[in-house]
Specification:
This protein has about 500 residues and is α/β, with parallel strands linked by helices. The chain is built from 16 helices and 16 strands. Strands 3-4-2-1-5-6-9-10 form an 8-stranded mixed β-sheet. It has a 6-stranded parallel β-sheet with strand order 13-12-11-14-15-16, sandwiched between helices. It has a two-stranded antiparallel ribbon with strand order 7-8. Strand 14, helix 12 and strand 15 form a beta-alpha-beta unit. Helix 4 packs across helix 5, helix 10 runs parallel beside helix 14 and helix 14 packs across helix 15. The longest helix is centred in the N-terminal third of the chain and has 24 residues. The protein starts with 12 loop residues before the first strand and ends in a 19-residue tail after the last helix. InterPro entries: UDP_glucos_trans, UDP_glycos_trans_CS. Belongs to the UDP-glycosyltransferase family.
């Protein structure tokens, strides 16, 4: 290791968090680097968020930003720097060769960033990544820097993935086509149905995307077995007690959630939005009765067919309740690739292309959240105390709705018909089940209130999230790194 890359403890810490360049990774990453920077641990703590160049341009859409893409900029609290991922177009790798080329390009770019910080007297003392970034592991070994993984999904997903790659893959794969088959995994309080597993673990299509996910996660857990990096999980202990206890037997886990921003913390919105539109929907919400509004949003990547959107609108209208529906124009795509608009649907509610979701969920008028159940949306609903109607589709969403409905009892899952469509009748039924006056609705609302109080206590200044983050920072010592021969220093070997 070169002299200018040594990290004397008295100079404090510098965390470099490398995030995947999509909305669901950017905001929890942003919250984490801000909270790291504000910790008081006896020495200065600096944090830098690094994203692909394409994402950086969307985060800072100005001519000045384009001129400084290769140097760090700051918002006054944390720094930002872009790296070249080998494509510069926001696309996903096409095949194994493309993945290898992009990994090499990302590694070279991140290595140059690390060397640049060291040359400027701000050496990186810990590299971090959201869920998994193989180039980060490569660069950490090259520069003798410890690594921490920021797991932005629930601890249950961490356990499922961990055990899949530690002896359960054949059992799960052999029953992938039987959605009702149950698998007992260590730490889970009950058997998990195949239909509730993350989609890429039970996908038998053989697609390039699925193969890529499997290969990347397999290498991730090979890495954790060998080097045992710290793992920060965006959850809190009371939410997943048994599974967190189980995973602490295998990994150095720190629960640092809920990592949900607030009105006083910066948030990044990668999609264009209009402040005039924001005033319009907030004024509309202000005019509604308490807990009367159905808020509907399916995340930043979901695309819905015209048939599906017609059913959703029909179900909202059948419910007889006011609704706020968020759907981007590019999220309205028919099977033939054409787009459609939502006209004459706003007599009962409001349709917008974008909203500040946390601000909406925090509003007293919102009574339930019809969601795709991505983890960011799920944890924001928990923090806001809003019951959930789950419409899961892919990735971690089937597991998250399992937690919502069966573990925490703060929502219900809609059932799709034989064509995979959520019908208006089914949506209206679920809205009544959650927002009505029946015993199930009462239980859901009470459980939502209880979890909200626990989540907010954890997130408060001095709460468990801050305490655990503080403990994590104190564990990052100068010798928690790779030796120059590529082996790990004895202090953090398993």
């Amino acid at each position: 290791m070169a002299d200018d890359e040594k990290r004397p403890q008295q100079n404090g810490h510098h965390f470099l968090l490398v995030a995947v360049g999509i909305q669901s990774h950017i905001n929890p990453a942003l919250v984490l680097v801000h909270r790291l920077s504000r910790l008081g641990v006896g020495a200065p703590v600096h944090a830098t968020l690094s994203v692909p160049i394409t994402t950086y341009r969307r985060m800072f859409p100005s001519p000045a930003a384009a001129a400084i893409e290769e140097t760090a900029t700051t918002d006054g609290v944390v720094s930002y720097v872009s790296y070249f991922d080998g494509a510069d177009d926001g696309s996903w790798p096409k095949d194994a060769d493309d993945r290898a080329l992009r990994r090499l390009a990302s590694s070279e770019s991140l290595s140059a960033i690390v060397a640049g910080f060291a040359a400027r007297g701000r050496p990186v003392t810990c590299m971090m990544c959201t869920v998994v970034s193989l180039p980060v592991f490569d660069v950490a070994r090259q520069h003798n820097i410890p690594v921490a993984i920021y797991w932005i999904q629930p601890a249950t997903l961490l356990a499922i993935n961990y055990h899949y790659f530690h002896g359960y893959n054949e059992l799960i794969a052999s029953h992938a086509t039987d959605p009702t088959y149950e698998v007992c995994l260590p730490g889970l309080s009950r058997p998990l149905r195949i239909s509730n597993f993350p989609s890429f673990l039970i996908d038998i299509s053989g697609s390039e995307r699925v193969k890529a996910f499997i290969e990347v996660f397999q290498e991730l857990f090979e890495y954790t077995d060998q080097w045992r990096p710290k793992v920060l999980v965006n959850t809190f202990d009371e939410l997943e007690v048994s599974v967190i206890g189980e995973m602490k037997k295998h990994l150095d886990v720190f629960t640092v959630g809920p990592m949900v921003g607030s009105s006083t913390e910066a948030r990044i919105h990668l999609f264009k939005h209009d402040n005039v539109d924001e005033k319009r929907y907030m004024d509309w919400l202000q005019a509604q009765l308490e807990k009367s509004v159905v808020y509907v949003s399916f995340g930043s990547v979901t695309k819905n067919s015209k048939r599906q959107m017609d059913e959703i609108i029909g179900g909202l209208q059948q419910s007889g309740r006011p609704y706020l529906l968020v759907v981007r124009k590019d999220g309205l795509e028919d099977d033939d690739g054409s787009h459609h608009s939502l006209e004459d649907t706003q007599s009962q509610g409001m349709v917008v292309e974008w909203c500040d979701q946390l601000e909406v969920l925090s509003h007293s008028a919102v009574g339930c959240f019809v969601s795709h159940c991505g983890w960011n949306s799920t944890i924001e609903a928990v923090v806001s105390g809003v019951p959930v109607i789950g419409v899961p589709n892919m990735f971690d969403q089937p597991t998250n709705i399992y937690l919502i409905e069966e573990e925490w009892e703060i929502g219900v899952r809609v059932e799709r018909n034989s064509d995979g469509v959520v019908t208006g009748i089914e949506l209206a039924r679920c809205i009544e089940l959650v927002m009505g006056e029946g015993p199930k609705a009462m239980t859901i609302r009470e459980r939502s209130k209880v979890l909200k109080e626990i989540a907010q206590a954890s997130a408060n200044i001095g709460g468990y999230a801050e305490k655990n983050l503080h403990d994590f920072v104190k564990t990052i010592q100068v010798n928690d790194a790779f030796c120059t021969d590529g082996t790990m220093s004895k202090s953090i070997k398993p």
